[in-house]
Structures are given as structure tokens and as C-alpha cells.
Amino acid sequence: MSSVTVDHVSPGQGQGHDHGHDDHHHAIPSGWRRWLFATNHKDIGTMYLIFSFIMLLEGGTLALLLRTELFEPGLQFFQPELFNQFTTMHGIIMVFGAIMPSFVGFANWMIPMQIGASDMAFARMNNFSFWLLPVAATMLTISFFVPGGATAAGWTLYAPLSAQMGPGMDLAIFAIHLMGASSIMGAINVIVTVLNMRAPGMTLMKMPMFCWTWLITAFLLIAVMPVLAAAITMVLTDRHFGTGFFNAAAGGDPVLYQHVFWFFGHPEVYIMILPAFGIVSAIVPAFSRKKLFGYASMVYATSAIAVLSFIVWAHHMFTTGMPVTGQLYFMYATMLISIPTGVKVFNWVATMWRGSMTFETPMLFSVGFIFVFTMGGFTGLILSVAPIDIQVHDTYYVVAHFHYVLVAGSLFALFAGAYYWVPKWTGRMYNEKLAKWHFWMTLISFNITFFPMHFLGLAGMPRRYADYAAQFTTFHQMATIGAFWFGLSQLLFLYTILRCYRGKGEVAAAKPWEGAEGLEWTVPSPAPFHTFETPPEVK
Amino acid sequence: MTPEQRRRNRITGLILLAIVLAIFAWIFFRGPATLGGVAIN
């Protein structure tokens, strides 16, 4: 069971200043030192969230530049070389700079409060793992201005192309190393915190689903980030130190890179979606006013997804010429993932079934997530069929599929989580009307942007092309209009959240959502600087 | 955090770090040979 009964914590009691410790320990630092030397999990969580939103804007701007060029056939604004740089950097920034750090931000804010811990296990390492990110982001951004420009090998950095590019490629490799190191440190912190620092009585099977999904995600990170690090280190040594890992002329194998990369790359997809499952699993019960249906099966389904994610990597490589037996294996193994994923979707719907539902913005985004993410899941199932994948490989069908998973999946859940927990973070309720406008604009513009891409892909439009045949114009123009609408809609989110941070809006109660459960709602809003210095007793 | 908790955290963290380093080293030094490449043997 996930529900917890807290023995002796009442609203306000979880804060730190009521324990009589010395003031030096409890003093809240101020000014720039508070942020540069931050060791408090809430401050670090806030920095992660701000950083990831800035990267979302940077990656989004690159996407809008791509869509601007694609508004009409022919080359209007950018040469194909620069277009490829935009494509590559959009992918790298969104994956490593926006989505992953934002979930780490949520983990920092919520995991200690949800398990009744005073902070993350390694507070200084937490600080270090955050501050690596702005350095990496700066390296990525300045790579546009080095000779040859930024890397243009696609976010997958496939060899041998990546072994041949200019210094922008080296900057990208170093930046990804830093971001990978940051992720590994964040994962170690999450695992140690969850395993060793839970409040008395908070057994693993009483933990909120968000903690469970993050624990499993952290193990995935530990297992696959070193694989990515090794792959790009091999590219680096091929480029500068005379090795021939991926150079056929030197006895190496370019396809080896794809195997190693996708051994990281497929679990990476789940790294970006499992915490989203956790957020939705917190919100759906809260606004259905019911307990989460099938808590244990949710835990097992999440674990099953994680395990299966390690044995399906070559479904990204059906066109590289693998034996039919290999294709069959990877096809059926990939299809298997739909079973635990189906369990989760079933459980969310069953939680809502006959619930006393209300549709505040976190719930709207969660329901939107379930509906639109499931569409992305279905196109994934279609892509797992090897003969179909061979036809639509590297077309816009694939672009549509993974944006349905990562935007309607990860990003919608992030918005849902932000609206759900922002009263706890800021002590203020967001403006419900503006937030609902944000939801509907986002949902509609998202589908206008990405739904036509299915048709483009089925008709043969290849991805990563700056130009296209005239027959694709209408769908591309729809996508471009939708993309600008989607981008502008996010300014509403920024405004709505900033209002809360600036102290505008209704004062939030300790537990602003009637159906919400968990330790985080036992502390006041905004959450005090120190919480649970005396661990709560969970029954 | 109690000293005992710190000690357990440190041990768990070091075990996880060792796993990370082992995976990196195996992929870099043995992965290519095992997966069919011959760049380093």
C-alpha cells in the first residue's frame, strides 16, 4: 500500500526551527552564496528547475528556427549545414539539458519530503552535480561559434560522421560527459537517499510512486550513463588518439557505435518517462479522491519496463542489416514492453473509475498525458514491427512518435507536477484560469504540430532535411504554425509560475488538494527551509 | 543525520560508484572485442 499514516507530524511540525538546534546550523544563507554554495535540497531543486526551463527555451528556440526553415520547400533562411547543427543541438539540449535535469529538480524537491528525510544523502555532491550543468550548457552553446560550428551529427552522434567533424564535436563530447557525470551523481544521491534515509515506518512498499519510479530510474542511470560515456570517449579517442573503434579502415566497426549508443539510448527513453509516470501516479489519485489502483502492480510494472529496456536496443537499428532472427527477437522483445505499460495505463484509468473527480490543471495535464502519451505508445508498437520500421525508418513518423512520448509524455507530466506542487514550493496558489488556458493551448497546439508528422512520415518525408518536395508543404505549414503556437503558450506557464514565486495569488494551505496524500502535505506551504530534521513516524 | 547513517551512505555511494566505473571500463576496453570489433584487444 502506498498510503501512509503519519504518527506525530501535524502541519507546521515538520519544519526545522522547532527543534532547538543551534542557529548556525539552521541559518538560511542569503545572497549569491545561498545559490552558489547551496546544499539544501529545496534550493538545489529550484536551481535545477530554473536551469531546465532556460534550456527548454533554448532548445525550443532552435526548434522554432527549424520550423521556420521548413515552412516552405526550398532553402529560405539557413544552409543545410546550419540546419543540421540546429537539429542536433535541439535534441541534445532537450534530452540532456531540459527533460533530464527537470526530473532531477523534482527529485530534489520532493523525494526527501516524501520519505521524511531532512535532505539528500550527499548534499555537497548534490551542489556539484548541479553546477556541472551550466558549464556543460555553456560549452554546448558556444560550440556554435567555433570553426565549423556546432556538431551536426544528430543527437545520437553516430560514427563515423561524429569522428570527422570540427571542434564543435569535441565540445559536445565534453559537455555530454559533464552532463552524464552530473546525472550519475544525481542518481547515486537518489538511490542512497531512498535506501538509507527513509523515515521510520516508511517501508519501500509504502513509498509514494514518485519515489519508486525515481529509484528505478536512478538504477537505470547508473547502468547506462557509463555506457554513453564510454561510447563518446571512444569517438574522442578515434578523433584524436589514433584508435579505430569505429573506423572500418582501421579494423573497427561503425555499427558498433550504434549498438553501444542504443544500449544507452533505449533505457534513456525510460529515464525520461518513468519519473513522469510517478508524477501522474501522484496526481490521478489526488484528483479522483481514491487510492492508486494496483499500487504493487505499478511498482512491478515499472521494474519490468526498466528490465525490458535493456534488451530491446537494436529495434533502433533494423535497417543496419541484422539477421532475420535478430530482427524477430528485438521485435517481439519490444512488443513485450507494451504489457507493463498497459498495466500502468489500466491502473490510472481504474483509479479514475467511479472516483470523485475534479479537473484542476494538474489533473487536466495528467489526463492529457494518459491520452496523448498512449498514442505515442501505440505508434511505438507500430514501429517495433520490423517490416514497418524498415519502411518508415528515419522519417517524420519517427519524429512524431518520439515527440508524442517526450513532449506529451515527459513535458505534460512535468507541467502537471509543477502545478500540483507549486503551492508547496511557493506558498501561493497558481491562477487556475491562466493555467487551464495554458493546458488547452498546449494540448491543441501540440497536436497541430506533431499529428501531421505521422502523415509526412508515412508519405516518405525523411527527418533532418532542410528541404522537401512540394507535396509535403501543407503538413509542414500546419506543423510550423502549431509549433509557434506551442512555443508562445509556454510563456503563459512561465508567467503563471513566476506569479507564485513573486508572492502573488491566493495563500496556499499546507494541503491545498483535498485528495492529496503523503508526507509533503504535512509541512506548511511554502515548505520551510529545513524539514523533517526529526524524522516523522510513519504507520 | 547520525554518524551511522553517514557511514552507511558512504558505503552505498562507493559501491554504486564502483559499479559505474566498472561498466565504463568494461565497455571501453572489452566491449569492442566482445561485440566483434578489433580496435583494442
Question: In brief, what are we looking at here?
Answer:
Chain A is mainly alpha-helical and 539 residues long.
What report would you give on this structure?
The complex is a heterodimer of chains A (539) and B (41). With 539 residues, chain A is mainly alpha-helical. In chain A, 66% of the residues lie in helices and 0% in strands. The longest helix of chain A is centred in the first third of the chain and has 36 residues, at 80-115. Chain B is mainly α and 41 residues long. Chain B is rod-shaped. Residues 37-41 of chain B have low confidence and may be disordered. The interface between A and B is medium-sized, with 33 and 23 residues.
Strand composition percent of chain B: under 5%
Main interface by residue count: A-B, 33 and 23 residues
- Report the average pLDDT across residues of chain A: 93
Order of helices and strands of chain B: H
Residue share in helix of chain B = over 70%
Rg for CA atoms of chain B: 16 Å
Number of strands of chain A: 0
- First-last Cα distance of chain A: 11 Å
Characterize the main sheet of chain A.
Answer: none
Q: Write the H/E string of chain A, N to C.
A: HHHHHHHHHHHHHHHHHH
Q: Determine the number of helices of chain A (DSSP H or I, runs of at least 4 residues).
A: 18
State the end-to-end CA separation of chain B. 47 Å
Low-confidence stretches of chain B: 37-41
Overall body shape of chain A: globular
